[in-house]
Each structure stands twice: as C-alpha cells, then as structure tokens.
Specification:
Length: about 300
C-alpha cells in the first residue's frame, strides 16, 4: 500500500450520453492513473461532481473505486453532504465497501458555529472509523477552516489525519505541518511551493487527465532535484491553465476521451459541455504541450 503522499488526482465521474454514471469509463480512467504512478485518488470530490450526484450514485462510485483499486493504492472517498445524517451514511458505506480513507467538506449553505462543525465531523468520522481528511474549500462551502477551528477538530476527532487545503490562505500550509497534519495542496499549480513549506502532496482535478506531469514533479522532489521539479511544475501548470479556461469538469473529460479512446462525456448540468471549435482548440493546445494519446499506458502494454 502506498503512503498518503505525492499526487492524488481528484478523479472525474465519466458520464454516458444519457447523463448517467459511466462505470466502464471510470474504471479505465482509474487504471490509467494507477499505471502512471499516482499515490491514490480523491474520489467523488469537487472534480467528481459529487454534489451534483445522488447519494446512490456516490455510493456506487465508492464501490467501483474500491473494486478497481483492489488495495493497490489509497482511495480517499469524499462523503460530504448538506446533512450530518447523509454524510455519515456515505461514510459508513465507504468503509463497508473498502475505501482506505474518507474526506468531507464542512456543512454548507447554512452558516454553522465552530462547535456545530466539530460535532458534524465527529459523527461522520466515527461512522467509518478510517483515516479522516478535512476538505478546506471556502470558496464553495463558505467555511474557512482556520487554525483555531482545525485545533478544535483535532482535539475532538481522533481519526483526523490531514486535509486538502484549497484555501487562498497559502501560509496555513506551514501551520498544518506544525500541527502534525498531512496537508495536500488543492491547487495543482502550487505543488512545488507547497511541498517546500510542509505539504505532503497535491490533490486537484487536472492531474486526473495528465497524471504523468505531476508524477514527474513528485519523483524529482523525492530525488532532491529542485530544478527538475520546478521545470516539471511549469509544464504541469500550463496544462492546468488550459483546463481552467476550458472548464475543469468538461475539459478533463475531453482530454481523457481523446487520450484513452473511451467517451468520458461532459460535466453534469449545470456544468457546461465543451463542444465544437472550442473543444478542438483546447485539445490542440494540450497536444502542443506534448500530451497525446496514451493507449499503451492505459492498457498496460
């Protein structure tokens, strides 16, 4: 089993033409990333569009991910939901089907006190009794996990192992490291800077479609090749910029469709599709970066 470090792509949820979960494509995407050398996956997170899926769909994703993984790497299954009961049910199911760890955004939509957030996390973490990761995504949840709040969580949630830090408050990466937490930076454009101040790796959507770019960063970093890591980061960041321009959900699925030769669909509405000349332009720019078909990598040949 790989440690919780390095690159953990936030895996997409491929969709069939009728807008339903494409299980075969999900397995192909996972296998492609495993063969590229990732350390694990952030499953059904933001890039997996979990908030646009039903609880039954998210549960099925947990089942597929655990089955396809078969204990080879670490799946961190996102179980965040608007209610504590739903999140706890998703957590219990993830543990039952074999997820290695779980993660969870704080309660969103209705503003909650620190005490309510801690109680939410206590209940969700206890339902699975697996390594637990907080998902700090204030731009979407309206909740900033401050150092003070994280200390309260750490005091009350014994399963707490770390977090995905997607806040613009970059300086807190160092604070999480001092607290003994494993911090994954949530921006794939900041992997090297984050590693330099205590992060253990990166979790983001674009690496799912071009995992080799971030695996290269990690390998260079582990060897102490800082210049190599910085050069690899520059190329990886260029890819992320293209994906952000395209719309990460449909953009990463378009690139995976092109690379793997299996239709991964588009983002689930209201996420807009990537079509026509705009799609062609995005794929051409990705190709110009030297990111092309990888059928041999996907198939293991």
């Amino acid at each position: 089993m790989t440690p919780y470090e390095g690159i953990f792509p936030a895996i997409v949820t491929p969709m069939s033409p009728d807008g339903k979960l494409n299980e075969a494509a999900f397995r192909e995407v996972m296998e492609f990333n495993i063969r590229a050398g990732v350390g694990g996956f952030w499953v059904a997170g933001g890039n997996g569009e979990s908030v646009l899926l039903s609880d039954e769909e998210n549960m099925r994703i947990a089942e597929i991910a655990s089955d396809q993984n078969n204990g080879r790497i670490n799946n961190i299954m996102h179980v965040g939901a608007p209610t504590t009961e739903r999140a706890a049910n998703l957590a219990a199911h993830a543990a039952k089907v074999g997820a290695e760890a779980i993660c969870c955004v704080p309660p969103f939509f209705y503003g909650q006190t620190d005490e309510a957030i801690v109680e939410h996390y206590k209940t969700v973490a206890a339902a699975a009794d697996l390594p637990f990761y907080v998902y700090n995504l204030p731009q979407s949840t309206g909740v900033e996990i401050t150092v003070e709040l994280m200390q309260k969580i750490q005091d009350q949630v014994p399963q707490l192992a770390g977090l995905k830090h997607s806040s613009i408050n970059f300086s807190n990466v160092r604070e999480w490291e001092k607290m003994g937490l494993s911090c994954f930076i949530g921006s794939s454009m900041l992997m090297v800077p984050a590693l330099s101040i205590g992060a253990v790796g990166c979790i983001d959507g674009p690496p799912c479609a071009a995992p080799e770019l971030w695996v290269n960063i990690w390998k260079c970093w582990q060897k102490g090749d800082l210049q190599g890591a910085m050069d690899a980061q520059q190329k990886a960041s260029s890819f992320t910029e293209i994906m952000r321009e395209a719309g990460v959900h449909s953009g990463t699925k378009a690139v995976l469709t092109e690379r793997l030769g299996i239709d991964c669909g588009s983002g689930r509405l209201p996420n807009p599709p990537l079509t026509g000349t705009r799609r062609e332009n995005i794929l051409q720019r990705v190709s110009d970066l030297g990111i092309g078909e990888t059928m041999s990598l996907a198939s293991g040949d």
